[in-house]
Specification:
With about 160 residues, the protein is mostly helical. It has one domain. The protein is built from 6 helices and no strands. The radius of gyration is 15 Å and the shape is globular.
C-alpha cells in the first residue's frame, strides 16, 4: 500500500473509532444522555478535533447513531448531529486549548435547546440553560482534563 492510501486509511479508521466511541458512551449512559437535563459524557470527545481532523466526521457520525437511540426523533437526529459537526469544525480551528470546550457548549445550548423546545414543548431559555450546564460539565469538567492528558501524549495522534 502506498503512503497516500495508508494516510487515508488511517484517517477514516480514526474517524470510525471516534464515532463508535462517541455512540457507545452516549448509549451506555443513556439515562443522562438525552432529554432537557442531560450530561452527555461522550461530549468530552469534542476536544479531539483539536488534535486530529479525523474527529470531525467521526463525531458527526457517532452523534447521528447516538441520536437515533434518543427517542426525540428526526429533529434531534438532524439538528443535534449538525450542532456536533459545527462544534467539531470550530474546535479544530481554535488554537487556545482552554477555549476548546466553548464551541460545543454555546452551539449545543442554542441548537439542542431549540430542538428540545420544539420537540418537548418547553421554554427555550430553560432548555438552553440546562443543555448549557450539562455541556459545561461534559466539556470543561471532563473534556478539558482529557485534552490536557492527551496533550502530554500527543504522539498517539501521529
Amino acid at each position: 500500500m502506498n503512503f497516500k492510501k495508508s494516510n487515508r486509511f488511517n484517517y477514516w479508521t480514526r474517524a470510525a473509532m471516534i464515532g463508535a466511541l462517541y455512540a457507545i458512551i452516549t448509549i451506555i449512559f443513556a439515562p443522562i444522555s438525552y432529554g432537557m437535563v442531560q450530561v452527555r459524557i461522550s461530549e468530552m470527545l469534542l476536544i479531539l478535533p483539536f488534535f486530529t481532523p479525523a474527529a470531525i466526521p467521526g463525531l458527526f457520525a457517532g452523534t447521528v447513531i447516538a441520536n437515533m437511540f434518543g427517542g426525540l426523533g428526526i429533529l434531534d437526529i438532524v439538528f443535534g448531529s449538525l450542532a456536533t459537526l459545527l462544534s467539531a469544525y470550530l474546535v479544530s480551528k481554535i488554537g487556545n486549548k482552554y477555549l476548546v470546550p466553548l464551541p460545543p457548549i454555546i452551539i449545543n445550548a442554542i441548537i439542542v435547546g431549540l430542538v428540545l423546545h420544539f420537540v418537548l414543548d418547553l421554554p427555550f431559555y430553560l432548555t438552553a440553560v440546562w443543555v448549557g450546564i450539562g455541556q459545561t460539565i461534559a466539556c470543561y469538567g471532563l473534556g478539558l482534563p482529557l485534552l490536557l492528558l492527551l496533550e502530554r501524549h500527543r504522539h498517539i495522534f501521529y
